[in-house]
From TrEMBL:
CDD domains: Anticodon_Ia_Met (cd07957), MetRS_core (cd00814). The gene is metG. Residues 419-478 form the Methionyl-tRNA synthetase anticodon-binding domain. It is found in: Cytoplasm. The lineage of its organism: Bacteria, Pseudomonadati, Pseudomonadota, Alphaproteobacteria, Sphingomonadales. This is Methionine--tRNA ligase.
Length: 517
């Protein structure tokens, strides 16, 4: 078995129900997890909820409930959403679980043993919404004398006794890390931002709070709870059994990639490696900061009243169409915009009309006219070979190479070009006409197409797992021959049996309230 592979998403704040950004990140991570499994790697995939901190405590207070009750309720919505979206996580993590307290305290003690924690007094700006400290110089003017964080969130002046982490000590080691591992932070633009931030100088970080108690207790100073980001980041270790020397930890740490949004790159690419260096734990291999999803170019917000429930999108358009759209429409590192119309257009033109139509017309033709089975004996002609080569190359080389780099849109573009080539071949070869004139040649054409459809369905299966499985079932492809290694064998060389083909991609109706684009 090839190298084990560990991928994580951010853990999400369950101070409300999940939004489309949460769905986007988790779908992308799921595609990577499924893709690596199909590459033959043993994969561990973790997602979950980040339940401590002031933001949760305040929200619970506003609602007249306890943080634990709020977390229990909201975390359930996240898990339900991820199950609905066909997310193949191995562990759904909750930071309020007992094993996580023990792991966070162990990491704390390891940093303390290295001389990196000291007690002092914090005086400065804090944004509860971002759960982040900011320097005065980073703040922006919100008008009328109001100061806002660089993310545009309110900040408050905070004074309290606090433990500090000697982040300043790690400035040079971090810069060396970025220099020696150019892929540690991706995409490149985000790496440049982080490097500039670290080069400008690092101040020690306040890592505990005393003004509330919803969090992990600081060992030996029980009136302090850890700064929520200290325990949140530790989730990546806890999920593997840290601090015990478990088999899971040995196998999967260091993580191959922490997949997160662009707003939290600093926590993952500055604080996290510094904590790990201090505690003597190996560093993750890559932090990838994806772009933000906007609705018709705008951020979703309760104030604008344009918040979409991702469960409704899944119900309205189907899980596979939604997954396909989110990875196909724009490149993963960049911000992207979505709208119901754009989802419908993309799904109808590429999934229903192109790939779905190809599969359905070939398979239903075989079911109707060939007794459901095809064995080709006529010679393979150059046009057949050229199509097989193009499709096989797109599926076994181009798409996987792009997906390895998280360039999903580019990989799907190669895949789509292969679908177009198949449709052009069907039109040119016209198997329905060959049925009368040259039935042997017709079988060769159909076999070639079935080989191509098999390749296309396997290659795209990490993105649209349910529809791909349906197509592969209809082509009678055995369950153990649906990975990328299987693409080396051409089913067109044997007998292909088609069973009960059903359209895999229903055509979607344009929503009635669709806005003109
Ligand atoms: O930041 N488009 O949690 P969170 C794409 N608990 N991604 C988005 C997005 C959008 N519109 N809005 C948010 C936290 N995200 C912390 C993480 S990890 C140890 C702790 C992404 O619920 C965001 O960038 O605010 C982050 O990666 C994830 O959703 C969770 O955001």
């Amino acid at each position: 078995m090839a190298d084990p592979f560990y991928i994580t998403t951010a853990i999400h704040y369950p101070n409300g129900k999940p939004h489309i950004g949460h769905a986007y990140e988790t779908i992308a991570a799921d595609v990577v997890a499924r893709f690596q499994r199909l590459r033959g790697r043993e994969v561990r995939f973790q997602t979950g909820t980040d339940e401590h901190g002031l933001k949760m405590a305040q929200k619970a207070r506003d609602l007249g409930t306890t943080p634990r009750a709020l977390a229990d309720e909201m975390s359930g919505y996240f898990r339900d959403l991820f199950d609905r979206l066909n997310i193949s996580y191995d562990r759904f993590f909750r930071t309020s679980e007992d094993d996580h307290h023990r792991a966070s305290q162990a990491l704390w003690r390891a940093m303390e043993a290295n001389g990196d924690l000291y007690l002092d007094r914090y005086e400065g700006w804090y944004s509860i919404r971002d759960e982040a400290y900011y320097d005065e110089a980073e703040l922006v003017d919100g008008g009328r004398g109001e100061k806002l964080s660089p993310q545009g969130t309110p900040v408050e002046w905070t004074v309290e006794e606090s433990w500090f982490f000697r982040l300043s000590k790690y400035q040079e080691p971090l810069l060396a890390l970025y220099r020696d591992n150019p892929d540690f932070i991706r995409p490149e633009g985000r790496r440049n931002e982080v490097e500039r931030f670290v080069e400008s100088g690092l101040r020690d970080l306040s890592v505990s709070r005393t003004s509330f108690d919803w969090g992990v207790k600081v060992p030996g100073a029980e009136d302090h709870v850890m700064y929520v980001w200290v325990d949140a980041l530790t989730n990546y270790l806890t999920g593997l059994g840290y601090p015990d020397n478990t088999e899971l930890f040995d196998k999967f740490w260091p993580a191959n990639v922490h997949l997160i949004g662009k707003d939290i790159v600093r926590f993952h690419a500055v604080y996290w490696p510094a904590f790990l260096m201090s505690a003597g734990v190996a560093l993750p291999k890559e932090v990838f900061g994806h772009g933000f999803l906007l609705k018709r170019g705008q951020k979703e917000s309760k104030t604008l009243g344009n918040v979409t429930d991702p469960v409704e999108l899944a119900d309205q358009f189907g899980v596979d169409s939604l997954r396909y759209f989110l990875l196909r429409e724009f490149s993963f590192g960049q911000d992207g915009s979505y709208s119901p119309e754009a989802i419908v257009n993309r799904s109808n033109s590429e999934l229903s009309n192109s790939f779905g139509n190809l599969a359905q017309r070939v398979m239903s033709f075989i079911a109707k006219n060939c007794g459901g089975s095809v064995t080709a004996t006529a010679p393979i002609e150059d046009v057949d070979q050229a199509l097989r080569n193009k499709v096989n190359n797109a599926c076994a080389v181009e798409l996987p190479d792009a997906f390895e780099k998280l360039a999903f849109a580019a990989g799907l573009e190669s895949w789509m070009q292969a679908v177009f080539a198949c449709n052009a071949y069907v039109d040119e070869q016209a198997p329905w006409a060959l049925r009368k004139t040259d039935p042997e040649r017709m079988l060769r054409v159909l076999a070639t197409l079935c080989g191509c459809i098999r390749d296309l369905a396997i290659a795209v299966s990490p993105v649209i797992p349910a529809a791909s499985a349906k197509l592969l079932d209809a082509l009678s492809i055995p369950a153990d021959a649906r990975d990328y290694a299987a693409l080396a064998n051409d089913p067109a060389l044997g007998t292909i049996t088609v069973e009960n083909p059903q359209p895999a991609f229903p055509r979607l109706d344009m929503p009635e309230d669709a806005q003109a684009q």
